[in-house]
Amino acid sequence: MILRPLEARDTEAVQRIFPQWEVVRWLHAGVPWPYPADGAATNMAQCLAQRARGEKFYWAITLKGGDDTLVGRIDLWPFDGVVRDTRGFWLDPALWGQGLMTEAAEAVTAYAFETLGWPELYLTNAVENLGSGRVKEKQGAELIAVEPRDYVGGNGPSQIWRLTRAAWLARRPA
Hints:
The chain is 33% helix and 28% strand. The protein has six helices and seven strands; from the N terminus they run E-H-H-H-E-E-E-H-E-H-E-E-H. The strands form two sheets. The chain has a four-stranded antiparallel β-sheet with strand order 1-2-3-4, with helices on both faces. It has a three-stranded antiparallel β-sheet with strand order 5-7-6. A hairpin with a 2-residue loop joins strand 6 and strand 7.
């Protein structure tokens, strides 16, 4: 897995991969569904503008030894003091179960804690999204709450996790 900054050239891959029920089902209800034909282009313009303003960070997930085509995305944003959610991700379902998202999450977490010096991350997932929950568990995040949330697939309980810089650093090899 290789992470690189999200770029406008990724729009076509996002539009092809993203609008799959397996990908969007457990994302927040603000994601338009059915996904419109211009959904990726609209979202890409918003993301690139937010990154240019320094509000959020966006990376394309690509395959090592591949052709640099986006196969997923991982995003990071600072805690706003209200909404306990600071990272999001999705991956082509054809690549699930290979550890790619865990690897991407580790790289982005390292950026948050080691480069940006953030003290903690708040992470969320639908209770039923077991794969997303496993990524948080592997990183040493602590489950701190379960709250209702609206998803593309409907209402459901959301797990809220807290990952501190200290806890993350303590579980990393020396």
